[in-house]
Amino acid sequence: MQKKALTGRTARKAAGRQGAGGQRPYRSLALHRRGGVEWLTLDRPRQLNAIDPVMADELLDYFGRLSVRDEVRVVVMRAAGRHFCAGIDLATADALSANVPDGLRIQRQMSQIVLRMRRCPQPIVALVHGAACGAGFALVLAADVRYAAPDARINVAMARIGLTGCDMGISYFLTRSVGGSNAAELMMSGRFIDAERALRIGLVSDVVAFDALEAKADALSGEMIGMSPLGLRLTKEGIALAADAPSLEAAIALEDRGQVLCFGPYMQEGVAAFRAKRAARYAGAQ
């Protein structure tokens, strides 16, 4: 997969502009589904995939619809062009600072994207290349698994434009991902970190050549789809709930519930497939 293969024009040709579930066309997102895996491409390459009001609205719509789209079991999020996402489109800066009510409305719209990413039952795999700044970094943090190309550069850009470094869930996700000291360093300076350091501190799962990112996501999503449909969804939910569980007992109670829910519909087929050394054929799986 060459970088030129992810230009806006090519992404549109390959994925079309069809909205989630065929509902409506998207102007700044491109979608392509392969079986149970949907590839979501941020597609404003000339603007470095900066998030303008249109893209924000479309991301809200896309992630909001996923809860009822059982045919989609995994989402792979990537970007067209040279960079993943330059953050919020600064052309909206005047609207943000015009007055408090309008600023709060826009701020809440952006924050809701992250909430919907975490609420949707499908795992999200982010493929990061080039710059992932500010709001773009927040999208990456809200994904369940993150892979990076060697040229990836990430920063909390809002810290450099007069704002706090706490935005769109960054203060929540970053401290849990890399620890308090690393998070404070990035959030209080806005400095960039490269892919090598991101891997070293646990911000991404792996760094692979840009041309290998798609294959990396293909391999992982294939293994994810090998889980039972309910097992995969409850695993995403369980990881999120365990992060804030008040005690070990509470986390184990959540785990017990998930396992019992999967016993009846899926375990018999899973064990039979394991014994026969074949792929499981779970009811409801794509």
Topology of helices and strands:
Blueprint: H1 8-15, E1 29-34, E2 37-42, H2 53-65, E3 74-79, H3 93-98, H4 100-119, E4 124-128, E5 131-133, H5 135-142, E6 145-148, E7 153-155, H6 170-178, H7 180-187, E8 193-194, H8 195-200, E9 206-207, H9 213-225, H10 229-243, H11 248-276
Parallel strand pairs: 2-3, 3-4, 4-6, 5-7, 6-9
Antiparallel strand pairs: 1-2, 7-8
How would you explain this protein's 3D organization?
The chain has eleven helices and nine strands. With 286 residues, the chain is of the alpha/beta class. The strands form two sheets. It has a six-stranded mixed beta sheet, sandwiched between helices. Strands 5-7-8 form a three-stranded mixed beta sheet. Strand 1 and strand 2 form a beta hairpin.
Overall geometric form: globular
Helix content: 40-55%
User: How many distinct helices?
Assistant: 11
- Largest sheet, strands/sense/barrel: 6 strands, mixed
Order of helices and strands: HEEHEHHEEHEEHHEHEHHH
Summary keywords:
three-stranded mixed beta sheet, 11 helices, 47% helix, alpha/beta, 9 strands
Summarize the model shown:
With 286 residues, the chain is α/β, with parallel strands linked by helices. The protein has helices spanning 8-15, 53-65, 93-98, 100-119, 135-142, 170-178, 180-187, 195-200, 213-225, 229-243, 248-276, and strands at residues 29-34, 37-42, 74-79, 124-128, 131-133, 145-148, 153-155, 193-194, 206-207.
